[in-house]
Structures are given as structure tokens and as C-alpha cells.
């Protein structure tokens, strides 16, 4: 008969290859554990994404240096957004030194009907979740390594039902290492408010934070200068914003008013502070719109 066509030869090779496939070998315990770990990670990511579906914009408040007033900025920004009519959540991701509950004067923890999914308590119109709610003693140091931080943040995200939110303000851990990196990669933030104080070293650390955010291909909303005034001077935040080609979101003066806020955030007790945060909230909102795809 006629010689087989190339098509038949090719089909024959495929058939032979399929029938001669070696039987699948058993996975080793290590390989099985790795596959299970990947499945768990994938499932956790899916759960985190499901939880975050209901949240409009996620704003990180961040700095490379501790002690520049990130929590003060995060709390007063969240409260101001809520006062202006938005549905707001405040997520305290500073695992080592969570201070949001203290500044928000919140003592109750989350509630849960099924013992798994937690509903955050609400204060001043803001839903709040913090590691501090699970510490028996708030003066106790939290000493955790990278994987534990990663697991804790994921646990918070998968087990918290925030409900519908327009904004989630996230108080990030300081620095450029494991803890902030985990939050940035897990939460998929829409933009960062970088906090600096007027001193030279704080501005340098803020610049490092901006570079880290950019390395991760995430957006910086702009720079806030905190503790501005006669004692530390002013202008370094604005200078930094100009140098890094970013918007300057506002200046927050160092005032005695913060000492008198024993029962509520300072935007409620000082008109001057409320005015400063009104400007910052307004610029943050506009910047988020600016950064939306298509704008």
C-alpha cells in the first residue's frame, strides 16, 4: 500500500508516547507537604480577596521610621473621612506596637457569632481591628518572626468581616523589612500616605519608604509632614515631596491640643487640627481618583 502520510506518522508517535508514559510515582512526604502548603496559601489568598471585595479603597499610612506619628495620622485621617460621610475601617497592622486602640479610646474587642468570623467594633463611625485587642497585657512585647507575622495578618484578613467600606486606612509597621512587606503584598493597597517629620534623618527614612513602595510597583499618594513647628522646624516634608515628584498632602503642626485628647481623637477637640486633617483627607480622596485606571 501507499506509504503512511506525515499526518499519520505524527499521530502514531503521539499515540505511542501516550501509551508509553511511565506510571506516576508517589510523591515524597516533603513534596506532599509542599503541595499542601501551596493549596493552603492559594485558599487563603482566595479568602482574603473575598473579604477585600467589599472594600472600596485601601490606604496605607507608612514610614521608614518609628515615632513619626503614623498612628496619629492614620486615626485622625480615618475619623475625618468618616465625619465627612464615608464608611471607614481602620486596620492596625503594627504587630509589634499596636497603638490604634489607645488613640481611638476603644476597649471592646470584636464579636463573633460562629467563633470564627469576627465583626470589628466601631468607634466614632470607624470600624477598628488591632492586634492589641488580643493582647492580655498591652505593655507586653510581641516578639514574632517573619512567618508568624505573615500568618497573623492573613488570619486577621480572612477572619474579619468588615462589611461594605468606602475606605480602609491601614496603620503599617515602620521600616522596610518583613512586617511592612507582608502587609503590602497581602493587602494590595491602592496607595500610601508617607509620614515624615521635619528632621533630616526622618526625611531620609521617608525617602527609603517611598523607594520601597515604588520597587513593589505600588502608588504613593503623597507626603504628610507631622510635628511641624518651632521645635523641629518645617518644610522638609514639602521638600521631600518635591524631590520625589509627589503631591504634598499637608502639614500637621505640633500642638498642645494632642495632650488634651484623653477621650477622643484630636480632630474632635481642636478646630485647628480638624482643619489640617480636612485638607489631608480631601487631597487623599482626589489623589485616589487621579490614580484610577483611565484617568
Main beta sheet: strand number and arrangement?
8 strands, mixed
Span from first to last CA? Answer: 69 Å
**What structural class do helix, strand and pairing data support?**
alpha/beta
User: Beta-sheet strand percentage?
Assistant: 15-25%
Molecular shape: globular
Helix content: 40-55%
Strand order of the largest sheet: 3-4-2-5-1-6-7-8
Assembly level = single chain
Low-confidence blocks of residues: none
Number of helices: 9
Radius of gyration: 25 Å
Mean pLDDT: 83
Elements, N to C (H/E): HHEHEHEEHEHEHEHEH
How many β-strands, per DSSP? Answer: 8
Write the layout of secondary structure elements.
Blueprint: H1 6-19, H2 29-52, E1 55-62, H3 70-83, E2 88-92, H4 100-104, E3 122-123, E4 126-130, H5 146-159, E5 165-171, H6 178-187, E6 191-196, H7 200-215, E7 220-228, H8 236-243, E8 248-253, H9 271-290
Parallel strand pairs: 1-5, 1-6, 2-4, 2-5, 6-7, 7-8
Antiparallel strand pairs: 3-4
Helix pairs in contact: 2-5, 3-9, 5-6
Can you summarize this structure?
The protein has nine helices and eight strands.
Detailed description of the structure:
With 295 residues, the chain is α/β, with parallel strands linked by helices. It is 42% helix and 16% strand. The protein has helices spanning 6-19, 29-52, 70-83, 100-104, 146-159, 178-187, 200-215, 236-243, 271-290; strands at 55-62, 88-92, 122-123, 126-130, 165-171, 191-196, 220-228, 248-253. An eight-stranded mixed beta sheet has the order 3-4-2-5-1-6-7-8, sandwiched between helices. The longest helix is centred in the first third of the chain and has 24 residues, at 29-52. The mean pLDDT is 83.
Amino acid at each position: 500500500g501507499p506509504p503512511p502520510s506525515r499526518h499519520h506518522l505524527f499521530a502514531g508517535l503521539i499515540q505511542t508516547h501516550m501509551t508509553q508514559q511511565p506510571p506516576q510515582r508517589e510523591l515524597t512526604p516533603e513534596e506532599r507537604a509542599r503541595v499542601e502548603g501551596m493549596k493552603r496559601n492559594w485558599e487563603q489568598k482566595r479568602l482574603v480577596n473575598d473579604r477585600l471585595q467589599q472594600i472600596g479603597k485601601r490606604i496605607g499610612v507608612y514610614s521608614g521610621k518609628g515615632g513619626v506619628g503614623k498612628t496619629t495620622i492614620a486615626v485622625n485621617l480615618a475619623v475625618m473621612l468618616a465625619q465627612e460621610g464615608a464608611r471607614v475601617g481602620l486596620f492596625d497592622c503594627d504587630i509589634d506596637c499596636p497603638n490604634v486602640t489607645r488613640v481611638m479610646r476603644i476597649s471592646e474587642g470584636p464579636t463573633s457569632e460562629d467563633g470564627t468570623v469576627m465583626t470589628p467594633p466601631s468607634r466614632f463611625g470607624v470600624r477598628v481591628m488591632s492586634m492589641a485587642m488580643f493582647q492580655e497585657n498591652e505593655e507586653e512585647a510581641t516578639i514574632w518572626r517573619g512567618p508568624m507575622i505573615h500568618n497573623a495578618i492573613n488570619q486577621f484578613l480572612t477572619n474579619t468581616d468588615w462589611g461594605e467600606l468606602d475606605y480602609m486606612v491601614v496603620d503599617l509597621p515602620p521600616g522596610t523589612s518583613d512586617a511592612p512587606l507582608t502587609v503590602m503584598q497581602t493587602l494590595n493597597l491602592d496607595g500610601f500616605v508617607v509620614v515624615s517629620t521635619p528632621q533630616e534623618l526622618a526625611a531620609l527614612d521617608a525617602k527609603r519608604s517611598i523607594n520601597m513602595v515604588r520597587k513593589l510597583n505600588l502608588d504613593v499618594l503623597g507626603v504628610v509632614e507631622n510635628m511641624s513647628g518651632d521645635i523641629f522646624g518645617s518644610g522638609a516634608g514639602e521638600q521631600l515631596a518635591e524631590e520625589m515628584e509627589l503631591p504634598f498632602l499637608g502639614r500637621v503642626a505640633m500642638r498642645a491640643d494632642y495632650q488634651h485628647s484623653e477621650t477622643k481623637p484630636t480632630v474632635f477637640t481642636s478646630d485647628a487640627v480638624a482643619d489640617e486633617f480636612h485638607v489631608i483627607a480631601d487631597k487623599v480622596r482626589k489623589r485616589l481618583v487621579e490614580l484610577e485606571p483611565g484617568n
